[in-house]
From TrEMBL:
Protein name: Flagellar hook-associated protein 2 C-terminal domain-containing protein
Domain (Flagellar hook-associated protein 2 C-terminal): residue spans on this chain: 29-235
InterPro entries: FliD (IPR040026), FliD_C (IPR010809)
Annotated organism of origin: marine sediment metagenome
Any one cellular-component term (Gene Ontology): bacterial-type flagellum filament cap
GO biological process: bacterial-type flagellum-dependent cell motility; cell adhesion
Length: 245
């Protein structure tokens, strides 16, 4: 059974939707937490998944940046539950003279490898952060252990070592909430900023409309004052004319 995690869109601060999907023999097991906070589960198909691979289902639900590797020489060692991105990574390592001379990594969906930090038999993904305190690269804090007992090239462009970092349902929810609550880039902050900007724009439009109406009122008052003056003058002239007759 190959687990797959899908995260729904987070269009506003009052909506959180996360979906867990497990593929079992072409059938889908759906565990969904919708925007109303309701947890839905297809019990029949889920029971089939439990019967087929009990431990894998538990790992999918509760995994918190656990990992596996297709190599017995380069193995998963550890990852940050906060900073490492779950997914499949391609890895290439060269061991020469009982030491690691080269270590590179990238997401399987990427085209360019990045250099890993070497510390004895442990290699670590680039742990650089941006100005907002967010990881620059997905492999941030991902650590792999390398067996140095035999020299060789492990992983190539055509056949890389594949390291899979898993994240369960609870981890997806936690990460989604973290993203929502980030001080400068969180969806709640962005939505609040957008709402404030929209409110300021509306206030400016209201003020401009009030100024326009005030000016129009002033012009109309002046216009009617002139009309009244003209009417009074005409009435006076007519009264004088009739008086002369």
């Amino acid at each position: 059974m190959a687990p797959e995690i899908q995260e729904g869109d987070l269009p506003s601060q009052d909506r959180l939707e996360v979906r867990l999907v497990c593929w079992v023999g072409g059938q889908v097991v759906g565990l969904e937490l919708d925007g109303d906070g309701l947890l839905n589960l297809d019990t029949n198909v889920f029971d089939e998944a439990i019967a087929e691979d009990y431990m894998d289902v538990l790992a999918v639900i509760g995994a918190d940046k656990t990992g596996s590797s297709t190599s017995n020489t380069v193995e998963f060692y550890g990852a940050s539950s906060r900073y490492t991105t779950a997914g499949s990574y391609d890895v290439k390592v060269v061991v020469s003279g009982g030491a690691i001379t080269s270590a590179q990594i990238k997401l399987s969906t990427e085209s360019t490898y990045r250099t890993m930090t070497i510390d004895g038999s442990i290699i670590t993904g680039d742990s650089t952060f941006n100005d907002d305190g967010a990881p620059v690269y997905p492999e941030n804090s991902l650590q792999l252990s390398v067996d140095l007992s035999q020299d060789g090239t492990y992983g190539t462009d055509e056949n890389p070592i594949v390291v899979r970092v898993k994240q369960g349902f609870t981890g997806v929810i936690e990460d989604a909430i973290d993203r929502m609550l980030k001080t400068t880039t969180g969806s709640i902050q962005i939505a609040q900023k957008y709402a404030n900007e929209t409110l300021d724009t509306l206030k400016d439009r209201i003020k401009a409309e009030e100024d326009r109406l005030d000016k129009k009122e002033t012009r109309l008052i002046a216009k009617f004052a002139r009309l009244e003056a003209t009417l009074a003058m005409l009435q006076a002239q007519m009264a004088g004319l009739f008086g002369a007759i």
